[in-house]
Amino acid sequence: MLGVGGLRVALDGTEILHSVDLEVAGGEWVTVIGPNGAGKSTLLRAIGGVLPFTGSIQIGGVEISALPRRKRAQLVATVAQQPVVPPGMRVIDYVLLGRTPYIPPLGRESAQDLAIAERRLRELDLVRFADRELETLSGGERQRVFLARALAQDAPLLLLDEPTSALDIGHQQEVLELVDTLRAEHGLTVLATMHDLSIAGEYADRLALLADGRVAAIGPPAQVLTEDLLREHYRARVRVIAGDYGPIIVPVRG
Ligand SMILES: Nc1ncnc2c1ncn2[C@@H]1O[C@H](COP(=O)(O)OP(=O)(O)OP(=O)(O)O)[C@@H](O)[C@H]1O
Question: Can you tell me the ipTM of this complex?
Answer without folding.
Answer: 0.98
